[in-house]
């Protein structure tokens, strides 16, 4: 059974979101300058129609990503904390062990590092900013949310270790799957951090 998709249409006007390819095709077929794109979530589709990144919305978003290049046995990781559309913290590094699952090791390490930061600062003041009690982890690798919430069975060693690490870090946390390499500002930012960690 195929997963639900949301089809965002910017052109022709009026901008709208439809639920099926048949509806989308009927609107854009033959239309001059048609501009449309499919998304996995309605929120992403709406953000694209409004030409704003997911992280521009209110609240605390933790964007995470990992990278593996092959020139190093380790994976790189990076995360960015975005509060009300403004970056307030970031970090990058490499896995302490060889990346047997390649970039997945980096993805999971980024999530753990970001969650540790959030739990340390949750409800505290960072400079002039009050860190909220709730945060959303925005990730492009689906296992980050699925394993953390116990929706996927952790079979590999790296997945089992990730599940063990995050169990005490989930207070006030929700997860959101975002599209990889979709041109989103913050997703591109953490991708660059993860890759940069391997080059430094």
Descriptive tags:
Nucleotidyltransferase, domain 5, Ribonuclease HI, Chain A, 2 domains, 6 helices, 33% helix, 5-stranded mixed sheet, 200 residues, alpha+beta
CATH class of the largest domain, anyone? Alpha Beta
Low-confidence spans:
none
Shape: globular
H/E element sequence: EEHEHEEEHEEEHHEH
Counting helices, strands and paired strands, the structural category is: alpha+beta
Q: What is the rounded distance between the termini?
A: 44 Å
The beta-strand count equals 10
Topology, pairings included?
Layout: E1 6-11, E2 16-18, H1 21-28, E3 35-39, H2 42-49, E4 60-67, E5 76-83, E6 86-94, H3 103-121, E7 125-126, E8 129-130, E9 135-139, H4 143-148, H5 157-166, E10 173-177, H6 185-199
Parallel strand pairs: 4-9, 9-10
Antiparallel strand pairs: 1-2, 1-3, 4-5, 5-6, 7-8
Notes on the structure:
The longest helix has 19 residues, at 103-121. The chain has 6 helices and 10 strands. It folds into 2 domains: 6-50, Ribonuclease HI, Chain A (3-Layer(aba) Sandwich), CATH 3.40.970; 60-198, Ribonuclease H-like superfamily/Ribonuclease H (Nucleotidyltransferase, domain 5, 2-Layer Sandwich), CATH 3.30.420.10. Helix 3 packs parallel to helix 5 (157-166). With 200 residues, it is α+β, with helices and mostly antiparallel strands. The protein has helices at residues 21-28, 42-49, 103-121, 143-148, 157-166, 185-199, and strands spanning 6-11, 16-18, 35-39, 60-67, 76-83, 86-94, 125-126, 129-130, 135-139, 173-177. The protein has a 5-stranded mixed β-sheet. Strands 2-1-3 form a 3-stranded antiparallel β-sheet, with helices on both faces. It is globular and about 55 Å long.
């Amino acid at each position: 059974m195929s997963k639900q998709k949301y089809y965002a249409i910017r052109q022709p006007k009026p901008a709208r979101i439809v639920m099926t390819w048949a509806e989308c095709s009927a609107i854009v077929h033959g239309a001059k300058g048609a501009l449309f794109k499919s998304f996995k979530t309605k929120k992403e589709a709406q953000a694209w129609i409004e030409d704003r990144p997911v992280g521009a919305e209110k609240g605390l978003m933790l964007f995470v990503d990992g990278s593996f290049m092959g020139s190093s046995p380790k994976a790189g990781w990076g995360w960015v904390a975005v509060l009300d559309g403004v970056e307030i913290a970031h970090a990058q590094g490499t896995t302490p062990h060889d990346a047997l699952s390649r970039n997945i090791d980096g993805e999971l390490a980024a999530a753990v590092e970001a969650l540790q930061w959030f739990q340390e600062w949750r409800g505290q003041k960072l400079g002039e900013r009050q860190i909220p009690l709730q945060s959303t982890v925005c990730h492009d690798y689906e296992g980050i949310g699925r394993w953390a919430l116990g929706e996927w069975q952790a079979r590999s060693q790296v997945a089992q270790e990730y599940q063990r690490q995050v169990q005490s870090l989930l207070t006030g946390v929700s997860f959101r799957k975002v599209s990889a390499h979709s041109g989103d500002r913050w997703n591109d930012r953490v991708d660059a951090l993860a890759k940069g960690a391997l080059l430094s």
